[in-house]
TrEMBL record:
Domain CS: 6-96
UniProt entry tagged with the keyword Endoplasmic reticulum: yes
EC number of the protein: 4.2.1.134
Claim: Mitochondrion is one of the keywords in the record: no
UniProt source species: Gadus morhua
UniProt gene name: HACD3
Pathway entry: Lipid metabolism; fatty acid biosynthesis
Protein name, entry field: Very-long-chain (3R)-3-hydroxyacyl-CoA dehydratase
Length: 364
């Protein structure tokens, strides 16, 4: 049943020199309609207030001019918080133009400040800003910063183009040939994959030179692990090159990298695309373990071939036998691979949490 009477929620207010903060006591607010017109704030929403579940609204005409921009910075199950920016950073003697305070309006004592407290806070902020500028002016700027960013941008661009070529090539062949494309993946894309993975060694060197903040150990684990699969398992055994597992290894690698490298490219020019950031920090969650499983399958399939060909076998004294098969080394490598999965997964997950936590703080 609709109410003909206009219902107003309880509204609590506080101010700083630069803004006015309103807290609307309305639970589970929906259909929010907040606007500023000619220095007057209009609020309308559906929610649970003092009169139960109803539509609530109110209007406030501010004492002094405000910017025509409402910042709805937080809406929770219990309340709606609104920030209105003052046109001039001055202290108001009251909130509304009318001298008589509306019945629904009350001070927000949790956020309330006297003018002297606000002056002190403003002074402290100004001191911090001046100190920060002073410190930054004393720090010697890196004269080679532009060169370093240019080098990192070009490196990530080359890697992006290389892995994109692999990804597109494999995708097109998959649509045209179907499952038959699995068996000649190595012969059609190996040269480009060799190039990209040899280039990837730079990612181990960059942290050592201080060019990137990425840890040395995670980069070494990933690059070394991939190069063992590519050069030792697939590159040295012709029998492995026609197996379908090659398709899955290469496809998973390239899918991850076509999002990772553009993200790093944009970081070099201090730019961020939120969707790309989300994909870069999310897509690895399923793909990275799947890639390690595909690599493990390749290792397991290669073991009997190393036993048969005795390739890379370790010579032993005659009393102990002729040689030690390289497959024993691969068994140890499998254990290291899954330990590396755990270490890298933990590192990447922490990195993801830090990234989105910092973005959330900026949004608030």
């Amino acid at each position: 049943m609709s109410n003909t009477q206009t219902l107003t929620p309880h509204v609590y207010w506080a101010q700083r020199h630069g803004d006015v903060q309103l807290r609307v006591d309305l639970c589970d607010a929906e259909n929010l309609d907040i606007s500023l017109q000619e220095n007057t704030l209009h609020f309308k929403a559906q929610g649970h207030g003092a009169k139960g579940d109803n539509e609530y609204q109110f209007t406030l005409e501010f004492l002094e001019p405000v910017l025509p921009k409402v910042v709805l910075h937080k809406s929770t199950q219990r309340q709606v918080n609104i920030k209105v920016l003052k046109k001039e950073e001055v202290w108001w003697s009251r909130l509304t133009r009318q001298e008589k305070k509306p019945l629904f309006l009350a001070p927000d004592f949790d956020r309330w400040q006297d003018e002297s407290d606000a002056e002190k806070e403003l002074h402290e902020k100004e001191e911090k800003r001046i100190n920060k500028i002073s410190v930054e002016s004393r720090i010697r700027k890196d004269p080679y910063l532009g060169l370093k960013k240019g080098y990192l941008f070009m490196y990530n661009l080359v890697q992006f183009l290389g892995f994109s070529w692999i990804f597109v090539n494999m995708t097109v062949r998959l649509f045209i040939l179907g499952q038959d494309s699995f068996y000649d993946t190595f012969h059609t894309t190996a040269d480009m994959m060799y190039f990209c993975q040899m280039m990837a060694v730079i990612e181990i060197i960059n942290p050592l030179l201080g060019l990137v903040k990425t840890g040395f150990f995670p980069a070494m684990l990933q690059v070394t692990g991939r190069n063992v699969i590519l050069f030792v398992i697939l590159g040295s055994l012709e029998q492995m090159q026609s197996k379908s597992v090659v398709f899955f290894v290469f496809y998973l690698w390239s899918t991850i990298e076509i999002f990772r490298y553009p993200f790093y490219m944009l970081a070099c020019i201090d730019t961020e695309w939120k969707l790309l950031t989300w994909v870069r920090y999310t897509i690895w969650i399923p793909l990275y373990p799947m890639g390690v499983v595909a690599e493990a399958v390749a290792v397991i399939q290669a073991m009997p071939i190393f036993d048969e060909t005795r390739l890379y076998s370790l010579p032993l004294p005659k009393a102990l036998g002729q040689s030690l098969s390289f497959s024993y080394t691969l068994q140890v490598y499998l254990i290291i691979m899954f330990l590396g999965l755990f270490v890298n997964f933990r590192h990447l997950y922490k990195q993801r949490k830090r990234r989105f936590r910092s973005r959330k703080r900026k949004a608030i």
